[in-house]
């Protein structure tokens, strides 16, 4: 039976640091280019750890990207004939991008967003929970826990400074599994204690 596939969708690639999100995003970008599609790659301007104008993986794989400081700037660069829009480090993009992404996907554009689903406290990160809820396809990747070697779904911050955003060198972070991950104030445990004390 012939199934007509309509184009336009949102794909989200998430997971902790070192799980291969950038590698996977670059792989999908390269395949879309092989398929002769018009691809535009964007990344938030704040993330300039490796290259201001490229998506770069920890394994040194790269693809050129336009660094944008906000949604307005992204829209200014967006070409009307673009068929694939790739977004790296999507957790740092602002909320006003969400209706734009929806509109693009509805109008036939393939949007691929890679980003951290959790911050280093294990909490939902930026617009990622919304993107995950709205996605047609979700890929959740795991890294390797640097303590026990199990699959890691969390990012451990190795230096203690305040705030959710610490854009830093890779040595400021390491991948950890749920059991080896340490949070300064484990809200989950506290909640569980409160519940057991209250019962
Ligand atoms: P992400 O975008 O999710 O941070 P990258 O695509 O940049 O991940 O990097 C993935 C690469 O990082 C792996 O292919 C591997 O070479 C390297 N790497 C370093 N530390 C780890 C780790 N703890 N677990 C898995 N891969 C790691
Ligand atoms: Zn572990």
Explain what this protein looks like in three dimensions.
The protein is built from 5 helices and 12 strands. The protein has helices spanning 21-34, 71-77, 97-106, 128-134, 187-198; strands at 9-14, 39-44, 54-56, 62-64, 66-68, 84-87, 110-115, 137-140, 143-144, 151-152, 154-157, 173-176. The N and C termini lie far apart (57 Å). 25% of the residues lie in helices and 24% in strands. It is an alpha/beta fold. Helix 3 (97-106) links the parallel strand 6 and strand 7 (110-115). The chain binds adenosine-5'-diphosphate (ADP) and zinc ion. Residues 15, 17-23, 57-59, 143-144, 146, 175 line the site of adenosine-5'-diphosphate.
Overall strand count: 12
Low-confidence stretches: none
Q: In percent terms, what proportion of residues is strand?
A: 15-25%
* Tally of helical runs: 5
Largest sheet: 6 strands, parallel
Query: Could you estimate the helical fraction of the residues in percent?
Result: 25-40%
The dominant shape is globular
Compute the separation of the termini in Å: 57 Å
Keywords: ATP-binding, Cytoplasm, DNA synthesis, Kinase, Metal-binding, Nucleotide-binding, Transferase, Zinc
GO molecular function: kinase activity
InterPro entries: P-loop_NTPase (IPR027417), Thymidine_kinase (IPR001267), Thymidine_kinase_CS (IPR020633)
Protein name: Thymidine kinase
């Amino acid at each position: 039976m012939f199934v007509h596939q309509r184009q336009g969708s949102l794909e989200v690639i998430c997971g902790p640091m070192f799980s291969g999100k950038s590698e996977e995003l670059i792989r999908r970008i390269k395949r879309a280019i092989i398929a002769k599609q018009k691809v535009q790659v964007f990344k938030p301007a704040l993330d300039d750890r490796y290259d201001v104008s490229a998506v770069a993986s920890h394994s040194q794989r790269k693809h050129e990207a336009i660094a944008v400081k906000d949604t307005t700037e992204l829209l200014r660069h967006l070409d009307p004939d673009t068929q694939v829009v790739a977004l790296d480090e999507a957790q740092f993009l602002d909320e006003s991008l969400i209706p734009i992404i929806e509109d693009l996907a509805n109008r036939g554009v393939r949007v691929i967003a890679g980003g951290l689903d959790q911050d280093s406290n294990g909490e939902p990160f930026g617009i990622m929970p919304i993107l995950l809820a709205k996605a047609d396809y979700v890929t959740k990747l795991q890294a390797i826990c640097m303590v026990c070697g199990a699959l890691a779904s969390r990012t451990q911050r190795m230096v203690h400074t305040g705030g959710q955003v610490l854009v830093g060198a890779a040595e400021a972070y390491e991948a950890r599994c749920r059991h080896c991950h340490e949070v300064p104030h484990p809200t989950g445990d506290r909640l569980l204690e409160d519940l057991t004390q209250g019962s």
